[in-house]
C-alpha cells in the first residue's frame, strides 16, 4: 500500500510560492507511483493570497510561534502570525482527514521549514528551527523531510509500515 504524504505544493510545481512562482522539484515527477501525494500550501490554507509579501519568524521558530512567544512578520512589519497558525491547523486537519503518514516540505520556509528557517532579518541568513506548520506536524509525530533530504525521503517511502 502506498504511503500518503503531504507535499508542499510549490515543490510539485504549483504556483503557491509567496511571489507567485514555484519550487518544482523534478525528482518528484515519478513519485506518484510510489506514494499518494497530497499537495498543500499552509499559507494559502491560512487565508493569505498568492502572491503575498514575504514573511519570516521573529523571536524564535515555529514552536515559539505556536506557544505565543514569537511572531511571523512581513518585511514591512505586518504581523501575519494568525494566518500562519491557521494554516498550520488546517494542514494538520487535512493530514488527519487523509491519514497522512509523513510530509515532504519546503526547506527554510516560515511555514514548512524543517530544522532550518530564515532568521527573521530578511537577509537570506538561516538558523536552526522549524516553521509553524512543520512544528505542529512534528508535535504529532509525523516524519518530516525537506527537498534537501530527497534520498532519505525515498528510502522512507520504501519502508514498510509497522
Keywords:
20% strand; two-stranded antiparallel sheet; globular; four-stranded parallel beta sheet; alpha/beta; 162 residues; 27% helix
Quote the average pLDDT.
95
Roughly what percent helix?
25-40%
Structural class designation: alpha/beta
Count of helix runs: 5
- What gap, in angstroms, lies between the N and C termini? 12 Å
**Low-confidence regions:** none
How would you describe the shape?
globular
Give me the Rg, rounded. Answer: 15 Å
Task: Describe the 3D structure.
The protein has 162 residues and is an alpha/beta fold. It has one domain. It has helices spanning 42-45, 62-67, 81-97, 132-139, 150-158; strands at 3-8, 35-40, 55-58, 71-74, 102-105, 116-118, 126-128, 144-146. Strands 2-1-5-8 form a 4-stranded parallel beta sheet, sandwiched between helices. Helix 3 (81-97) runs parallel beside helix 4.
Concise structural overview:
The protein has 162 residues and is an alpha/beta fold.
Give the topology, please:
Layout: E1 3-8, E2 35-40, H1 42-45, E3 55-58, H2 62-67, E4 71-74, H3 81-97, E5 102-105, E6 116-118, E7 126-128, H4 132-139, E8 144-146, H5 150-158
Parallel strand pairs: 1-2, 1-5, 5-8
Antiparallel strand pairs: 3-4, 6-7
Helix pairs in contact: 3-4
